[in-house]
Amino acid sequence: MPKEKPELSDAMRKKMSGKKPEKNPIKGTKFTIAISSAKGGVGKSTFATNLALALKNIGCKVGLLDADIYGPSIPKMFGINEKPKSDGEKLEPIKKYNIQCMSIGFLTDQETPMIWRGPMVTSAIKTFTQKVNWQDLDFIIVDMPPGTGDTQLTFAQDIKMDGAIIVSTPQEVALLDVKRGIKMFDKLGVKILGLIDNMSFFIGDDGKKYKIFGEGGVKKTADEFKKEFLGEIPIDPKVGKTGDEGMPIVESDPTNEVSKIYLNFANKIKSTYL
Prior knowledge:
Layout: H1 10-16, E1 29-36, H2 44-57, E2 62-66, H3 74-77, E3 94-96, E4 99-103, H4 118-130, E5 137-143, H5 150-158, E6 163-168, H6 172-187, E7 192-198, E8 202-203, E9 209-210, H7 217-224, E10 229-233, H8 237-244, H9 249-252, H10 257-273
Parallel strand pairs: 1-5, 1-6, 2-4, 2-5, 6-7, 7-10
Antiparallel strand pairs: 3-4, 8-9
Helix pairs in contact: 2-10, 4-5
């Protein structure tokens, strides 16, 4: 019989073993919350942007850090086309919708691919966490890159994160990667606040609920690893449309049912930390 494929590469195992390095907090914020998805295309950035807006709407001071170096989404989803100012030592976050934002996408052309090796990515992460003038924030929401590779590992090892939320769809192929993500955060001592079942279902014209990507897989995975299942977010075409237009659903339509779901998540996070 063939050997079982390792869940983590030997290089990653080596990095994750031995003495744990001291983690640096992001200056200017009380709490750092990572939004992660072990697989791309599950709505992680949509979740991060709308959660940040929901926290702002309930009175929190919020920053949004786009750490998805190879696929930054915040410039498009927030409709930001300007470059951040600098005093020569620190970058000034760009404020939009009363949220302080920073992204590699602010510094490069949106159509230019980021062909960077690990050391350059590590340098960018250190710049965004230690050399940005974040000011008096309750929370920084970090839109992490998908997967469990070197970028995610560098961030989780070097930066003090107060919690992580893992976003997934119910498909088995996505859940396999979620399990790797859970193990990575557990190994690195990052508290997992819970799992989100995104794009869980849609309501048809007949009023019935249709679960086209499967049912119950995210909750089952949460139960398997003894993590909290935070809930489901349905498919709503308006969510994608408003994000593409640069004004996410929580900002453009706060009474929408999906916006109300994000508001519930935000209240839960606020009550946990503040």
